[in-house]
Input
Amino acid sequence: MIDIRSATTADVAALVECHLTCWHEAYAELAPADYLAELENSQPARISYWTTKIANGEAPWLAVDDEAVIGIAHAGPTEDDDLRPGLTLFAIYLRAAYWGTGLGDRLHRTIGDQPTSLWVLPENARAVRFYRRHGFEPDGAEQLHPGLRRTIIRLVRPPSKTPDR
Output
């Protein structure tokens, strides 16, 4: 049985491993190979980052299958001045073997139904479809993702536009 639960500091190494694996699986065709290769060198910094976040009460949600971390969802106060107050979905990732199972929908429910935004590669059609199904729409904002060296777009969702509730 797959559980959705809040991460603890004991989960940090598995969380980071899952996150990096998900990036490789989801962005193999969308991200520069050198960027994906550099991610492996960022493990110590990512472990420190998540250890601090969890210790400060900002734990992400994990999807866990038989003790293996297979997905993560993390949201927090928006960093976009024009959307305050609000929430930003910073990450929702799921191992490729679980795509299409409904587990992504379960992870999405962890963020609640308050106004939320996120940034996504417009070429990531699978992700864009997923977020649009959950009530997110492009608002015209764009920015350059520094690591990917590509334009990302912002999707926003007003409150109570969560069709899976």
Summary: The first helix runs from residue 12 to 27. The radius of gyration is 15 Å. The first strand starts at residue 2 and ends at 6. The chain has five helices and seven strands.
